[in-house]
Design goal:
With 314 residues, the chain is of the alpha/beta class. It has a single domain, classed as P-loop containing nucleotide triphosphate hydrolases (Rossmann fold, 3-Layer(aba) Sandwich), CATH 3.40.50.300. An 8-stranded mixed beta sheet has the order 3-4-2-5-1-6-7-8, with helices on both faces. Helix 9 links the parallel strand 6 and strand 7. Helix 1 packs across helix 11 and helix 3 packs across helix 13. One of its GO terms (biological process) is cell division. Belongs to the ParA family. MinD subfamily. It comes from Ostreococcus tauri. This is Putative septum site-determining protein MinD.
């Protein structure tokens, strides 16, 4: 079924593309494990650099970056969030830090300020810091060399995770953002346009030597999947041939949290979407292997994906 849809969308069939990507990922992980050893980042210069990308705009990439970054900080890790979407930055708004942006990474690169001055520490969780790349500079002014310099300085500051909010599209901003990444998270929705763009991004990541790629399916609606009006998470994963990091249910609280500058994961009473982001953050750090079962939230939120979530309704 997934292959038929893939052919209709001109997306490569997972039976070939998925197997090739999986083989490349295994080989890449083996090489890294042998060279650096297994385990979590310690903060001694070995920070894990993760780029969050999508291809298509409007799928929740920046929202996911904010919530994953905040969740990682709540788990006790030192996290740096980089807003690489130059000219259209929104990460500061989602974190409620827009009024505290005094300097950006461009001022750091030009020697006008120190990195510590440009970093905006979140007052709620001091282990989380935001670094906007620029306020209004053109994208071509930020090069791969600039990105490498910024990452090197952040690693020296003993951050354990560096999460880059990548610009939408696949132009020079995308190429610069992924050039410094160790791994990637592709955010998509169960829509044909978003899936096609995500497939293109997955291919570009692979072409640039990034094989540790995971999939985050956003705005999943259980009622539409039951009616066969929306592709299941399993269908989306099989079409892209990328391991699943998590699935985020549609949530009206996203608009409320955005307007308040407060990520979903900070709400006292977490919604399913907030819980899904927290679980995804735990999976990134290797703490748990849980995914939300949207069909039976009251019986156990931290359950593995059930038959319904995989698209196998009884």
């Amino acid at each position: 079924m997934a292959c038929a849809r893939a052919n209709a969308l001109h997306v490569r069939c997972p039976t070939t593309t998925g197997a090739r990507r999986a083989s490349a990922r295994r080989a890449s992980r083996a090489v890294r494990a042998e060279a650096t050893g297994a385990g979590e980042p310690t903060g001694d210069g070995d920070a894990q650099v993760i780029v969050v990308t999508s291809g298509k705009g409007g799928v929740g990439k920046t929202t996911s970056s904010a919530n994953l970054g905040m969740s990682m900080a709540r788990l006790g890790y030192r996290v740096a969030l980089i807003d690489a979407d130059i000219g259209l930055r929104n990460l500061d708004l989602l974190l409620g830090l827009e009024n505290r942006v005094m300097y950006t990474a461009m001022e750091v690169l030009e020697g006008e300020c120190r990195m510590e001055q440009a970093l905006i520490r979140d007052k709620r969780w001091r282990t989380l810091a935001l670094l906007p790349i620029s306020k209004n500079r053109a994208r071509y002014n930020v090069t791969k060399s600039n990105m490498s310099t910024l990452i090197k300085v952040l690693k020296e500051m003993e951050f354990q995770y560096i999460i880059i909010d990548c610009p939408a599209g696949i132009d020079v901003g995308f190429i610069n953002a992924i050039s410094v990444a160790d791994s990637a998270i592709i955010v998509t929705t169960p829509e044909i346009t978003a899936i096609r763009d995500a497939d293109r991004v997955a291919g570009l990541l692979e072409a640039n030597g990034i094989y540790d790629v995971k999939l985050l399916v956003n705005r999943v609606r259980a009622d539409m999947i039951k009616k066969n009006d929306m592709m299941s998470v399993k269908d989306v994963q099989e079409m892209l041939g990328v391991p699943l990091l998590g699935a985020i249910p549609e949530d009206t609280e996203v608009i409320v949290s955005t307007n308040r500058g407060e990520p979903l994961v900070l709400k006292k009473k977490l919604t399913l979407a907030g819980i899904a982001y927290e679980n995804a953050a735990r999976r990134i750090s290797g703490k748990t292997d849980y995914l939300i079962d949207l069909d039976r939230p009251k019986k156990g939120i931290l359950q593995r994906v059930g038959e319904f979530f995989a698209g196998d309704d009884e």
